[in-house]
Amino acid sequence: MFKHIILPILGVLVFIVVVGLLVRKSGSPGLANIFIPKPTGGPVKTITVSAAKIDVQIADTAEKRVAGLSGVTSLKENEGMLFVFDAKGVTPLFWMKGMLIPLDLIWIGDGKIVKIDKNIPIPPPGTPDVNLQTYSPGAPVDYVLEVNAGFSDRNSVNVEDDVDLSGI
Questions:
Q1: Which end of the chain has fewer beta carbons closer than 10 Å to its terminal beta carbon, N or C?
Q2: Domains of the chain from N-terminus onward
Q3: What pLDDT, in 10s, does the model give residues 134-153?
């Protein structure tokens, strides 16, 4: 119980403190975006969601998970980012800070899709962090997949579909 509730909360609090310190150090909330690392273009792995194969970058460190796809201007049709957490069964919060493209968020637990947030729009420029909408699976998950908005509908991806992660 402790791991499933307290650890994710502590992780979010640490993230908020670090972002706050970076904003304070910069002297301007507008400069906070300078400190958001961009995806490294690291190794690409292939996973299968329903029948669709997707080439994914793996976000398996705190730094990569914080950066996510922030600052990315486009993804190919079957590209995305797979968020891998340090523990199984977490309930993470995601937001669209620094996002330049709309996304589908696919929440994965025990090898199945547990929730899909479809067509999440980019936030209007200048949206304060406190006004950014957050997204959560509502139940523990093991992975989160970010793909182009509309991917789920175009590929008939649904809740309860299988996800093959053997390629990672």
A1: N
A2: 36-164 (2.60.120.1140)
A3: 999 999 999 999 999 999 99
